[in-house]
Request: fold
Amino acid sequence: MTYARITGTGGYLPDKVLTNHDLEKMVDTTDQWIRERTGISKRHIARDGQYTVDLAEHAARRALEAAGRDAQDVDLIIVATTTPDRVFPSTACLLQKRLDRHGCAAFDIQAVCTGFVYALSVADKFVRTGSAKCALVVGAETLSRVLDWNDRSTCVLFGDGAGAVLLEASDEPGILSTHLHADGAYEHLLSVPGGVSQGYDSLNDGKGYVTMKGNEVFKVAVNTLGRIVDETLEANNLDKSAIDWLIPHQANIRIIQATAKKLKMSMDHVVVTVDEHGNTSGASVPLALDVAVRDGRIKRGETLLMEAFGGGFTWGSILLKY
Ligand code: ACO
Reply:
């Protein structure tokens, strides 16, 4: 049986750092409110002229290097992003050009904060069915560009960044199972209401920015993530104790703690980057994975549970042997 196995990870954060104290000077907020309600103390912001593909390229090159592979080895490129650089070509095609890789399939996936989990699940299917042998899967976002920097209820939450993995065919596990869900009925709770088919004018009057009923999103997120943890364990006939590391989407430390509690997991086995990165949407899970792989916490053979929840609503999980 062919499995799809992560052979390299990479991450990239823009140099520019925005602290909670910086935000105190921009909107009516405090460092204490942001840390207590979200766990965030700072986030990275793309500088002027730095775009999603720039972040994606850095992360992708680092993942290739970690795997000991060249871009020419890649036969599938998927980029999860909600903040593409252009209407078209896709960010995946722009990245393909940067990597000087010609001819392989390349496309974007848009599932907001669950984007990377969706993208990795799709890549897993390609690899397991033999349609690809070496997939580059990237989550890259410049969420700062769709934030209203006068809206304290959203602008303090997000940051920019990119994470990437190389996923290769292997006889060894590998991704064990993937679980994807969505419910568009919740679009009114979390959205950027404007969009290109409504005409470019639709992006004016605040419609080009994130709007969120945070409190209601919070409640659905906690319940939904609890359910998907159960679904993933049941599908694999596994007990909670089998999970070595939880790699959650990094939206809010309180949501992460609720999921860890559900798993009866000590926070020592939960990868947390929300304090330093904020919510980087589709980039948050691969960035967190890369941090914990590079600092030596996550080791080969360990069992990892990734989960995410985001706009759509979309949610999903992946269980894998690293
Ligand atoms: N600084 C100070 N006060 C603030 C700020 C701020 N930055 N933002 C809001 N407040 C105020 C509100 O106005 C409100 O004041 P009021 O009581 O006088 O009306 C008070 O703080 C409490 O507001 P709540 O929204 O109830 O605060 P809550 O504890 O729910 O925290 C938060 C808000 C952090 C947004 C939380 O609800 C949350 O994390 N929600 C989930 C976010 C999420 O997971 N999103 C999904 C992924 S994102 C994506 O998919 C793109």
User: Anything to note?
Assistant: The two ends are 17 Å apart (CA to CA). The chain has a mean pLDDT of 97.
